[in-house]
Design goal:
Blueprint lengths: L1 H30 L2 H4 L5 H4 L23 H6 L18 E9 L5 H18 L2 E2 L6 E9 L11 E8 L2 H9 L10 H11 L9 E8 L10 H10 L3 E7 L2 H6 L2 H6 L5 E4 L13 H12 L9 H16 L3 H10 L12 H4 L4 H7 L7 H4 L3 H39 L9 H15 L3 E2 L1
Helix pairs in contact: 5-13, 5-18, 6-12, 7-8, 11-13, 11-17, 12-13
Length: 440
């Protein structure tokens, strides 16, 4: 009997021990340290991210190698949602600008300035000309220094190729989120130099703007070698240190620019951009809404791009009416072309050829049941309306420019001179004029 009791007790202990091991094993699977359970940051893992994960909604953890853990994969932005726009068409005169923005934790102010001033910058660029011809403006966007990005790729991501589709650039800019991290400037410049489709025309203006606030020589890629590669392609590197000017010099931001005959600048990324309201803003916003109604979306991009146009207006207006105003003015420029999704722009040069290739199911509902002749009348009516609205907006832009010049005379020099748009535009103007561009 004593032996039986001993055997029973032993069996009970074995069962309890086995159950405890199972609980421990389950717990380990759910709560393992990041360095053990974290999967490599690969394309396969990125595709597991929920499609609505653009805005982080909870605190996440990150291991030292930059690979997202289980929670991180839920809150990490979805980088594979939008396909890249089409390659820009050939143009005789081009201004190509790649923006390389540090999106580590300390850079919220920089990203905020970029969001609020993108359209002001491109609207100023649209005032340039060479041989009485407006240049084709192409913008690219990179982010770097963000722990959500692939560590094996230097925590660097090409957000947008060089493109004339500035609505796409604007939309992607507003999706940037800060997090992390390790800022490898040399690697970022190297990627932008090698990946982007830079013009081989030595008379075109090709510029990289890289902005950040940590030491410029971090990471495994020698920034001097990256600079030399850019220089060989005729690319000018301009560096923007977010902080004290002298500190930026010590941390080699100045050297990162002078090696390609570029310009070193500094900004106060914490400074709020000064938006100057004018008496004409309400009228501009009204005309802008009417102008949007002249766009006729078609094909696979029609609905999404038309929605993007409206969404970008709303995002701009969240900063100020002045920001929406500059977007509206840019829509009057020849550089603002949406021929990949808008029938008015697409049929500008050869109506019959374009419409001959568009299938009925690719047309918007308002055109599907119309005869070919009535479709043409409808599109031409929208074209006339657009040109009339653009003329009204151009007249208002002249009045706004005069008003702002006078208003700035009343403001102190300190208000806004060291913000992103001001330092970039003064630099671009100078470098564009050296390439033979003139500004109105």
């Amino acid at each position: 009997m004593k032996n039986m009791n001993l055997l029973s007790s032993l069996m009970i202990l074995i069962v309890i021990g086995f159950a405890a091991c199972q609980v421990s094993e389950d717990s380990t699977e759910n709560n393992a340290p990041n360095t053990v359970t974290t999967a490599p940051n690969t394309r396969q893992n990125q595709n597991q991210i929920p499609p609505n994960a653009n805005a982080p909604n909870q605190q996440v953890q990150q291991n030292v190698y930059g690979s997202p853990n289980i929670v991180d994969r839920v809150s990490r932005p979805n980088y594979d949602t939008f396909p890249q726009p089409a390659a820009p068409p050939f143009a005789r005169n081009r201004i190509q600008v790649a923006l390389l923005l540090d999106t580590s934790n300390s850079m919220d102010g920089l990203i905020d300035q970029a969001k609020s001033q993108l359209w002001k910058m491109v609207n100023e660029l649209a005032k340039a000309s060479k041989e009485d011809e407006a240049p084709q403006i192409e913008i690219s966007l990179f982010e770097y220094g963000n722990d959500w990005l692939d560590s094996e790729k230097g925590f660097i991501r090409k957000v947008s190729r060089l493109t004339i589709d500035l609505e796409f650039v604007s939309d992607r800019l507003f999706e940037l989120k800060t997090k992390g991290g390790d800022e490898f400037c040399g690697w970022a410049v190297k990627d932008a130099t090698e990946i982007l489709e830079w013009s081989d025309n030595p008379n075109d203006l090709k510029i990289i703007f890289i902005a950040g606030n940590e030491e410029y020589n971090q990471g495994p890629v020698d920034y001097k070698l990256a600079c030399q590669k850019a220089k060989e392609k005729g690319i000018i590197i301009n560096t923007i240190h977010c902080g004290d000017y002298e500190k930026g010099v010590r941390e080699l931001w100045a050297d990162g620019a002078t090696c390609s005959r570029g310009t070193y600048m500094n900004i106060d990324q914490g400074k709020k951009v000064v938006h100057i309201p004018t008496p004409y803003d309400n009228k501009v916003l009204e005309l802008n809404k009417q102008l949007n109604d002249t766009y006729i979306g078609y094909g696979s991009l029609g609905d999404s791009r038309k929605n993007m146009q409206t969404s970008n207006d709303e995002k701009a207006s969240a900063y100020s009416s002045a920001n929406t105003r500059t977007r509206a003015f840019y829509k009057t420029k020849s550089n603002y072309s949406n021929s990949t999704w808008d029938l008015v722009d697409a049929t500008e040069k050869d109506y019959d050829k374009v419409m001959g290739n568009v299938k009925k199911e690719e047309l918007p509902d308002e055109l599907k049941d119309l005869s070919p002749a009535d479709r043409k009348k409808y599109i031409e009516k929208k074209r006339r309306e657009r040109k009339e609205l653009q003329m009204e907006l151009k007249d208002l832009e002249k009045k706004v420019d005069v008003y702002i010049v006078e208003k700035k005379k009343e403001m102190s020099k300190e208000e806004g001179d060291d913000t992103l748009d001001n330092v970039m535009m003064s630099t671009i103007r100078k470098q564009a004029e050296e390439k033979g561009f003139v500004f109105k």
